[in-house]
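Hi R.,

Quick one: here's the Acyl-CoA thioesterase sequence you asked about.
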Amino acid sequence: MESYYEYRHLVGFEETNLVGNVYYVNYMRWQGRCREMFLRDEAPEVLADIRDDLKLFTLKCECEFFTEITAFDELSIRMRLEDLTQTQIGFAFDYVRLRDGFEELVARGRQRIACMRGPNTDTRPTRVPDTLRAALSRYAVPPTAGGRRVFEGVGEG
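And here's the predicted structure, written out as tokens:
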């Protein structure tokens, strides 16, 4: 069975445009919020590390839209670990509308982050913390034929 971290969201009017559908930038915002809630719920030790000197730099983020959503749509943003290297993490996001007991995939996104340390004038790549690796390992995308997953030491530590 596929495992994912879920962040639930109820769309508000402030997230829509004049036509009434959700403005695209909100999908990126929800990716960030899902990632933050994951850290709070699944890897709180990493939050202390971020307060110290760990930095999570977003290198890339994208979203593919399948259908429009509007105010008061209930969403499940489902985050999975897509790949993990020494210093970077790739996330996959499914945006699923929940309505009357049915689920509809409305968008799909990706995000890539790099772990960095050091002062702003001399920030350098650093290993993904072991506590974060362990928390992420529970949400790995299942292997697929011809897939591009890369895992180096998931769950080690």
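The longest helix spans residues 25-42.

Cheers,
M.
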